[in-house]
Amino acid sequence: MSVNQGMATLSGDFLMAALLIYSLAVVAFAGDFAFGRPRRAAVRVAVPRRVAARTPVGAVIDGADGADGGPDSPVAGSPLISGRAPALAGAAPGDSLPAASVSAWRAIRQAGNWVQAGLAFSALGALAQLVAVIARGLAVGRAPWGNMYEFITALTCIAALFFLYVMIRYRVWALGVFVMGAVVIALGLAETLIYTAAGPLVPALQSYWLSIHVTAMTLATGIFFVAFVLGVLYLVAQGYHARVAAGKAAGGNGLIARIPSAEQLDKLTYRTVIFGFPVWTFGVIAGAIWADQAWGRYWGWDPVETWAFITWVLYACYLHARATAGWRGTRAHVIQLLGFASLAANMLVVQVFITGMHSYAGVG
Amino acid sequence: MTNVHEEATAQAEGTVQEQAAVQQEAAVQEEAATTTFAEDGPASPAAAGSARPAPARADWGWPRWAWRQLTSMRTALVLLFLLALGAIPGSLLPQEGQDPAGVQNYFASHPGLAPWLNHLGLFNTFAAPWFAAIYLLLFASLIGCVVPRTFRLAGAARTPPPRAPRNLGRLPHSASYSVALPPGEAVAIAAGMFGGKRFRLRRPAAGDTAHWLSAEKGYLREAGNLLFHLALLGVLASIAAGGLFGYKANKLLVEGSSFSDTVSALDVFHPGRLVTGSDLAPFSMTLQSFSASYYTTGESSGQPSSFDAKGVYSASPGGATKPFDLRINDPLNVDSTKVYLIGHGYAPQFTVTDASGTVVYDEATPFVPANTSNFLSDGVVKVPDAAPTQLGFIGVFTPTAFAANGVLQSAFPAADDPAVSLLAYEGNLGLNSGVPQSVYQLDTSAMSLVTQQPFLLRPGQSYTLPDGRGKITFAGYRQWVSLAVTYDPGQIPALVCGILALAGLLLSFLVRRRRVFVRATPAGAGSVVTVGGLARTDASGGFEDEFAELVAQLRAAHPAPEHADEAVLADAARPEPGMSPDTTLDKTETGA
Lengths: 364, 592
Ligand code: HEM
Known about the structure:
heterodimer; A: mainly alpha; B: alpha+beta; 6-stranded antiparallel sheet; 31% helix; disordered N terminus; binds protoporphyrin IX containing FE
């Protein structure tokens, strides 16, 4: 199995292009922050919901929300709303606005030039990266995630694609700068620090189950990567709201005001994690099958396996915490971030697919 | 959302204001703070009501309290967290099971600390009592919460959904429109539709004059969660079974030699607690040849491309022999016992004649690769039968020899130009001292150097020891493989349970437990139909879309009134609390 140098070069070129285009996307999303038209709630203080629901409309500290409830808002015009108890309507303004019910295309058109540019660059960058990953696979004649460099290249591609989906599905344009920024950093570090030339795999890694295993792990890592960024943003938003509620910070801070509310981030993070968790679980099972084929035991507490286990348990902890009294919110999110920290430690410190027992280990 | 939320919702049945209020996340927290998981039942109002344990009787008060603590969600969370935390030392410190030499080195380099760590079981973390305590408590907690939940689920599946709330407009999702049918017929059509979609239905009791319908679906979500947790128990049980009835062994086999699967023939044997020597599968095998190929060009030059061990085996003594072809990732399976190729190396062949001219040693001697990228290997030759004194040699084997600054090195892992370099000793090998010796090390404490300089031999060359002590010949080399022989009866059950756990997880995340209510009230010649919807669990989202779709289908099934403008047209979905304009998480399409 020899390396196709033409393809390898093509892959490298496309990856550099992707990196550049992603950077432009970050600039565009940042531009939206700086110059885009204000869109949503300046501050939505985390008033206990039961209280909020029973507070008259005006008392809900809802910042710019009101401005968004324009004349075409179904809330204002809906015959149904009139049937609602005023107490409930208190929670309603700003919650239901046109964007919630328009198609993705219209939502994008309404989002402004900066966001459109950011989305276009993100999509173009992801496309270029996809080409790079596929070309790498063709160059080496195997799944293009056989070493750490390839692994990070592939997982950031998945993170970018998955995030594009999340962003469009839930219209969370404001997250673009953070997630795409993180992708650019990860990809840039991979490119400069651990670049590995295209090459074949040692025999232990030439396994059908290994490809399945690493594919699942790559996917899950890409998804958890997005959840990680969302979780960090949650803590930022939550911390800010807590400070505003305590009167320690002024409402209406431009940057914070533009990211989604803590509740939204909480929900988004949860949905992202429950997408990643079964994929990770599957990846661990596939890895166990491979380990069994390669070494005669499906689980041996090898450091890499141990950390995959720790990561899995920590994400299970997070899912539990969300259902446990007193653990929702900040604490659950901290656990989620610990989960990603353990995943990153495994990837970068314990060195997954390069050395140790996880490559072909000779005796001695 | 959470069970807590479910329960609260279920109890609030009929009082819509309450129901709307508990939608709010903070309320969930408040509620949750006062309940433990053992109490917060899933699902149906009846179940939720009956789930609350009766006040503890005095005689059972304490154990009952302890059990409720153990099976509480908070304890489960803490134990899970401890499980993750407890696994960390197992990856940071060398472990007996994986790396015994590493443990010895650690003892040597940290003489003060190591005994303490050893006391805590940190060199065998995953078998340590405290680690076992964590997972056993966790699984006790799991049983304590899963079993009652199973019963409650069974109960819930037999209970009809609650009555439709009076004002459906206050539910998180609602819509209403006019139809040209009397209320009774409009609801009947709806019942037909939801029944056809396998919703569980509830209609007004006989004396009730109102026209309504409650429909509920998605019990599989709870079932999935239960399946997941039960399957985890299964995984643990399978691992335990493997530990009791399975075994692991290692064997180093040189080309041309044989071994049979008996305790004495194996180099390393780790039996399960309930395994005796007679439980071993009685197969035998002979290694005929081993080949390793390597990339020879480019950056990956020297990297192996394939390994292949060929030979014959027979499943029982005297049985028919069959060929085998062992490769990495491709074990040999003999009656559920598996043989894996896990390593390889070189075994230079030496012939030694002693002072009297007798051949006292003629063997292929396995050397251990010191460097797996060029297979420079170390080994020793012990010649206890040499006369007048015992002889010993410390050697280095290089498959592709070259001299780097006067030091023998290997340029490539394949045996393109093999050479050995040896140092000769004489004296007492110490084999009878009673202390077990490694075959890869020479105890030179009672020996003296025969040659001051190492001597180099190519295949076929000999070196004559000074003063008529004898002669050593490097005849050539063979290769050896190291094999792992394992039997693990828990393997397949563990895999099945793992897959079941995954299936349960997917069910739990993908299935949403939801209720849809329909009310029809007379209006003019026809009636006004109101539809309300409530997702009790909707982990991956999407109930909004489903609700819109259901309403659209229902409207299509209902004949519209003649004057279209009479229709009150409002398929509004009230988004989740905290959602704001363009960032609403749950995309909703207006059905109009
Ligand atoms: C081996 C230990 C455990 C692991 C790895 C584990 C893992 C998980 C995971 C991944 C979930 C999310 C999936 C789902 O919602 O179905 C979950 C949910 C849940 N677990 Fe566990 N669990 C464990 C032990 C326990 C114990 C001991 C309890 C009871 C005290 C428990 C009660 C629950 C409950 C009630 C949920 C549902 C939470 C919700 O509604 O969101 N689990 N568990």
